[in-house]
Design a protein that fits this description.
There is one protein chain. By secondary structure, this protein is α+β, with helices and mostly antiparallel strands. It has a single domain, classed as Glutathione S-transferase Yfyf (Class Pi), Chain A, domain 2. The protein is built from eleven helices and eight strands. The chain has a four-stranded mixed sheet, with helices on both faces. Strands 1-2 form a two-stranded antiparallel ribbon.
Amino acid sequence: MRAEPLRVRLARIPSHVILTGAGGSGRWNGWNVLKPAYTHTRGTRMGRLIEGTWTKDDVVRTDAKGRFLRSDSVFRDWVTADGSSGYAAEAGRYHLYVSLACPWAHRTLILRTLKGLEGAISLSVVDYFLGPEGWHFSDAPGAIPDPVHGARLLREVYVKARPGYTGRVTVPVLWDKRRGTIVNNESREIVRMFDTAFDACAREGTSFLPAGLEAEVDAMIDANYAPINNGVYRAGFARSQEAYDEAVTELFARLDACEAILARQRYLCGDRLTEADWCLFTTLVRFDAVYHTHFKCNLRRIADYPNLGNYLKDLYQVPGVAETVDFTHIKGHYFRSHSSINPSGIVPKGPLLDLASPHDRERRYG
């Protein structure tokens, strides 16, 4: 019987095993099959719902060249001030689910805080560990259980909204307690709703979308999204050298561009704090503690940039913001949840960050 070609035999070996050559004397003695501690070498197991049923087989998605692919958010309805969308901005009607670790969810938490919406929009915070069962609620420090459903797992909330839901279970989630469904799970849109639709419930005179700057704010958010906000993930979850090099090059090119912008003015869109600043902040505040090492974004730290480093401190010191930043959740999530990147699960003690130290932004720009 004719032996099968080597490539055919290799094709039959499951993707979760590692192959090594046996022997070291210069003669090939066959294959050793080593089972690694984690059973999928292609990426971190994320989990997802398929027609309402949880599966643990989903992994980080990449294209043919190893580039990380982010799934689009699915729930995209809007809360409006006048209720014309079917979702009126009313105090006590909505519930926000977040992770303190997640930069996307962090954006919405900051806007809820700065707009003074804590009494109008209730809150749940998941545990920082993202394991095989997905986001879950716990009694860990910083976590807040689900008072709406008493859910143990965030995926239960998704299934209540749409029993046959297929897709990722992500944060943030904005839940309508009156209609019993998810309104939206796209962070940028929730930020905009909190900023513009809830003025009747919000702190008077607080806005991060100045009249006449709407197009500029949106353009700045767009310009930073792919290379910076998503760029750190594109670097960290890249599955080829080419994909990693591309992501890191684009990331630092855009950081350099922001550094140049901030050399001319206090904030990204001029002399006013805007949504664009908060959308960038939640990536910057995680950068030196996590992305620089964990995602290999290590050409420079944010602290190495004179303008970005001081700008980060400036935003962190806005009253109410520091209280939304939890480095225990941030570092614990990334270093313990991403087993394909950090198999040991060891969380580093450093770096030592002093974001409360003086900055030069107010002195330079007023």
